[in-house]
Amino acid sequence: MHLLPPSHQGPWASLTAQRYGELFTLRIASTTWVFLNSSRVVTDLLEKRSAIYSSRPRMPFASECMSGGCRVVVMPYGERWRSVRKIMHGILNGRNAELFRGFQERESERLVGEVLRRPEGWWAANQRYANGVVMGVVFGKGITSEEGAEGLGKEGNGKSIFGPNGEEGANVLKKNGGGKSNIEKLFDTSQEFIAALQPGANLVDVFTFLDRLPTPLKWWIPRGKASFQRLLDVYGAEVRDLNQRVKNGTCPPCFATKFLDDPASEALGETQRLFALGSLMEAGSDTSRMTLSQIIAAAATDARWVRRAQEVMDRVLGVAERLPGLGDRGELRYLSAVVKEGWRWRPFAEIGMFSTCSSARRICCRLMEEFSWTLWNLSGVC
């Protein structure tokens, strides 16, 4: 385990892949970690044979203690996983794209306006945009100034609150005695979960035999239960707010209204329904923010492609006449390529998300043991 860096594992994984080829393994405690480093093995195992290689390993802290076994992203294949996934995919499909389109375009307009007014706060505008889109799609509500839209860069009276060392506005507010809104707490729970997924963040998730200790000796349980309760509290509050807005006729159609109205979701139970909503929040916020920031870094590094992108937009949209919409995507293929390059250049999960092998298999002349951990080395593949 000492070979694996505690953070930013992407560069290490890429160099190791160059040395050992399209597949290498690490032995950590009693578990073998298998790194997939080429499109060939990734496609062969995780796509063509996904039923064998794409389940999730047991993680006593991240999956069980702090998630109650209800977080879809760390849930092993099974009946519960299939039930949740079926309902979610029934809503997040092409037929409902028009339903979520307004949230995306509204937040895009706000993002452009914020960057034009306060270019020094571009990073905070990206975060506000990402949070605003996901809140609109999931709960049908925007992020107000007090909850972080303008508040990431200004207080309610318009006074700038960017810290002297570039601190995020919300953190400055906290230092100045400001309390946290439910939306800020909501995103805190996402950050807490992402931190828990980092390799080695929780010993019991790596050395699972520790879970055999007597309950009084399991030092991670109080922290995990507290995190579990915080998530139930913040998402429960959002659902109550959603129900009130629906009752008042002020809530537009969104993922949560469709999900909670689906009779099949009632069979999942209240806790699982809250975690299903939370899974979308966790999947949609930081990934969007980081991709936007990477594209801005690319623009600062080499402006040639920026000029090409501007020429394409001016030709399709006119010179500063309007912003692009989803309907323009077919004519803005160059911009689609820019977005994909942003994903490729620095993936959000540098060594992918853990999956597990459900039965022993031989691949690339190596035996992959049952319950081995499989990692898609995104940095190496890209």
TrEMBL record:
Any one Pfam family match given in the protein's UniProt record, by short name: p450
Keyword terms: Iron, Metal-binding, Monooxygenase, Oxidoreductase
Ribosomal protein keyword on record: no
Gene3D superfamilies from the UniProt entry: Cytochrome P450 (1.10.630.10)
InterPro entries linked: Cyt_P450, Cyt_P450_E_grp-I, Cyt_P450_sf, Cytochrome_P450_fung
Source organism, top-level taxon: Eukaryota
Coiled coil: none
A single GO molecular function term of this UniProt record: iron ion binding
Family: Belongs to the cytochrome P450 family.
Name the UniProt record assigns to this protein: Cytochrome P450
Source organism phylogeny: Eukaryota, Fungi, Dikarya, Ascomycota, Pezizomycotina
